[in-house]
Amino acid sequence: MPQANTTYNYERVIILGGGISGLGAALLAHEMQYDVFVSNMGDFKSAFAKALQTNNIPYESGQHTWSTISNASLVVKSPGIPDTAEVVQKFTAQNVPVISEIEFAAAHSNENIIAVTGSNGKTTVTSMIGRILKTDEADYTMGGNIGESFAQQVAQGEASHRLLEVSSFQLDGIKSFKPHVAVLLNVTPDHLDRYDYKFENYLASKMRIALNQDAGDYLIYNADDPAITNALEQSDIKSQRIPFSLEKQLDHGASIVDDSIHIQLEQSTFTMPIQQLSVKGQHNTANAMAAATTAKLLKIRKETIRQSLQSFQGVEHRLEQVLKINKVQYINDSKATNVNATFYALDSMEQPTVWIVGGVDKGNDYSQLYRLVNKHVKAIICLGTDNSKIVEAFGNCVDQMVETSSMEDAVRVAYKLASAGDNVLLSPACASFDLFENYEDRGRQFKNAVRGL
User: Fold this and answer.
1) Whether residues 115 and 241 fall in one domain
2) Model pTM?
């Protein structure tokens, strides 16, 4: 059984939210034999409810009953619940600690944590590092914001390495969470609706990944990102800083030399020709630099790193080539939930593109896409319950713009508008919650609709 290593009072643990992180926190609390109760404002997935029932963990759904949960000594909050939620405010007013699931899990783990964050690329980089660890036959788990929650993995047993993708929402709820290797890929406007529409608030949230690091830890960061470099200049982060850059050569860190990734760490050097990477595009080269630098810090053999990056096939819903029908390539980039992610997608298009875009706008500024839309996009299909901002932004950029309210309609319209040699690209630049359960559901519906043509 894991041991708690912080001073939290675990006498009565209330879990707010019954999704993946809530279930994981509940299972870990149950494993630790704490008095635990799960309160979920929505309905539970049947599999999650069954897991709670199997473990005799009490729960409620459809409401937060204050008389039942008000005696909490500690609250573990799911990342989807904002700090402004009434129930969270009530606990805060009572001085009850409200923490995130990764904080709760880390308090029960003394293992080597590798944490990856950024507005874009964090799933790809986490998966790349996972591929390297798997090839190395290392003892590791991979989870956090993808796959199983950190807490559930801690509950299931020990591991040498805990590889985590972490979001800004998860980082908002940490107090002592301390990764040995932190990776900060980029910070561009995203989720601004959760941060009072202030980019500086969102940036500060991302920077928390290094908040508790000390001189024995490492922060791998994007030296080409001015928001990150400016924040680092003003911070007192104590970890060893290791930059990576596509734009300039570095004496220390990772950069491009003679069309190869070149990583210099103390007395150790790693090189790999860019052309040997299995995933293409400048953003994927940067992702590979971050992953390879992490692997070098973990003292993994150079050949293992090269072999892994040569065979890595990308992640689902990220520029995923689905099918080619009548010489039209259909591409699923549903994971592009912000403008910067869609920028990478449009920038990688080499053929005329029918672009499917839309969803829940999070304070997006679409102006940075104008050049790419003018260059690559022949038609736009809006997919959302409110497309007004997209229509206003791009109405003068293309000759054809069609509004749709279901994935099947969007794909059928795209089929009619596309010609041989074109791409049909789903890259929404928005969250999915207006019409879909999540971005995975959106991506799978796109693939199903394409296969049904």
Assistant:
1) yes
2) 0.85
